[in-house]
Amino acid sequence: MSNVEKILSDPVGETATLAPKPKITAEGAGIRFGSIVAVEDFTTVIREREFVSIIGPSGCGKSTLLYAIAGFLKTTSGVLKVDGKPIVKPGPDRGIVFQEFVLFPWRTVLRNITLGPEIAGLPRAEAEERARKWIRLTGLGGFENAYPATLSGGMKQRVAIARALTCEPDILLLDEPFGALDVQTKNYVMKDLQDLWIAASKTILMVTHSVQEATLMADRVLILGARPSRIVADVRIDLPHPRDPLDQRLGRYRQEVTEILSAEVDRAMKGERGQ
Amino acid sequence: MTLDTAEIPRRRLPLPPMKLIRPVVSLGVLFGLWEIAARTGAISAFLFPPPSAIFAALWISAGPNGDPPYGILLDIALSLYRLLAGVGLALVLGTIIGLAIGLTGWGRAVFKPIISALMPIPTLAWTPVLLLVFGIDNRTTITVVFIAASFEIIYNVVTGIEMMTRKVYWVAASMGASRLQTLRYVVLPGILPYLITGLKLGVGYAWRALIAAEMLAASSHGLGFMIYDAQEYMDMKSIYGGILTISVMGLLIERGVIGALEKRTIEKWGVNVER
């Protein structure tokens, strides 16, 4: 039985012998900027090799939460832990992919991808060998010597994903990774990411505002409420991977998530109008 | 239909591009009219000697029969030496000060007010001070070049740092980069396009300031000194020859040297420098 199936066969994660170890633990985590509360009382457990998606109304603090797990921002209350240890700073165990790609324009595709191993002190030849694997798996072969400015959005996002994976992180953090891509490109990259996840066996945490993306890819969808955000629902998508977007059961999950989310958006809008 | 015409492949005539023809024609007409006017006596041939005589004098001055032999070449060499030494110094110190202002709180606190106070002072206003400190010496002219080139370099380095998003630093941090590695792999290459822009502007200012400073503070040789010296002997041809050389050298440095630097970096990377 693969680990994926183990997780799926154990929806509640209570069977201690079968359930993978907790990877990310959040215990009442909160983040505030001055008087603005971005995230409040965020509590959940994300297990090893789980693909979890965080979805919520725009401005609900879901990216803030991701940045805190990455170690870029600090929690102001509660704890966030990776492997049982509180997160204090960013590190190569947690790879990040941003919506805006954030590639280094002065480095070629290959050099962007080898930067992580180079920083870790690996010799160039070894760094390149590590990079080659992910260049092949992300379909970037032939573009190694291109500069990022010459690439399309979809290709740039592949470079960002390959760059993050070449650091061999345990956790991949995706911050609206398809937000800047057109629908066609998005579908391709999404399909590739699903294959990559199965091949790479990483824990993936993806922030998105698209119900379709979240339900298609994730094992669990965490729905955050309007600011200050807490989890309003934790929906387990109990379907095997890879999934067919036209699957009727998937359609029902989509509807379920959409309904909860719409209610939250309504609440948020009412709040803004002061009703 | 603009779309249709765009798809017709354009055939290039085997002629030098208009970009080259236009300035040659425009300058040729100017020199031609000048030549005729001087030869026919429409303008004073003493105050405005015909261009052919100016070129002839330049030619002699560049050879063993010049007074001194190879005089104009020595002038060019010495001016370039002063420029290079001053700009080199400005590049190193300017980058360090720019980094200190852009990256550190103490750097901003210490240097920013000083820079702001010094910036409005025309570089040549320092010559009397420098003359008293260094005397008529290369150190005086080199320091003038250094002052003239520094401000643009500092300003652009600071702008380059301000233009970088925090996510660029985050990517480096998630690769486990130390402060020094972040400086080496992210900050320095990231500011390079801005540094080149600063260098381009700085060298332009420095070249003009150098020629003027050489008139006041050079003991022998240098293009500025040469013009000033020629005035004492009412040698109009040498004065114009010097002015012409200053123009050509200035163009070569700005377009040739800095242009080549831009081609290897900004243009190759496809980066735009916003100012």
Q: Tally the helices of chain A: what do you get?
A: 8
CATH topology call of the domain at 3-87 and 219-273 in chain A: Rossmann fold
Ends of chain B: how far apart?
Answer: 36 Å
Number of domains of chain B: 1
Query: What CATH architecture of the domain at 3-87 and 219-273 in chain A would you give?
Result: 3-Layer(aba) Sandwich
Helical proportion of chain A, percent range: 25-40%
CATH class of chain B: Mainly Alpha
Q: Over all CA atoms, what is the radius of gyration of chain B?
A: 24 Å
**What is the average per-residue confidence, as pLDDT of chain A, rounded to a whole number?**
87
Total helical segments of chain B:
11
Report the average pLDDT across residues of chain B: 90
Family (chain B): Belongs to the binding-protein-dependent transport system permease family.
GO cellular component, one term (chain B): plasma membrane
Pfam families (chain B): BPD_transp_1
Subcellular location (chain B): Cell membrane
Question: Brief description of this entry?
Answer:
Chain A has helices at residues 3-8, 62-70, 109-119, 124-137, 153-166, 183-200, 211-217, 248-273, and strands at residues 22-33, 36-47, 51-55, 77-82, 85-86, 94-98, 171-175, 203-208, 220-224, 231-236. Chain A is of the alpha/beta class. Chain A has a domain at 3-87 and 219-273: Rossmann fold (3-Layer(aba) Sandwich).
List the helices and strands and how they pair.
The complex is a heterodimer of chains A (about 280) and B (about 280).
Chain A: H1 3-8, E1 22-33, E2 36-47, E3 51-55, H2 62-70, E4 77-82, E5 85-86, E6 94-98, H3 109-119, H4 124-137, H5 153-166, E7 171-175, H6 183-200, E8 203-208, H7 211-217, E9 220-224, E10 231-236, H8 248-273
Parallel strand pairs in A: 3-8, 3-9, 6-7, 7-8
Antiparallel strand pairs in A: 1-2, 1-4, 4-5, 9-10
Helix pairs in contact in A: 3-4, 3-5, 4-5, 5-6, 7-8
Chain B: H1 2-7, H2 18-40, H3 51-61, H4 71-103, H5 105-118, H6 127-134, H7 138-163, H8 166-174, H9 179-217, H10 223-232, H11 236-269
Family (chain A): Belongs to the ABC transporter superfamily.
InterPro entries (chain A): AAA+_ATPase (IPR003593), ABC_transporter-like_ATP-bd (IPR003439), ABC_transporter-like_CS (IPR017871), ABC_transporter_ATP-bind (IPR050166), P-loop_NTPase (IPR027417)
GO molecular function, one term (chain A): ATP hydrolysis activity
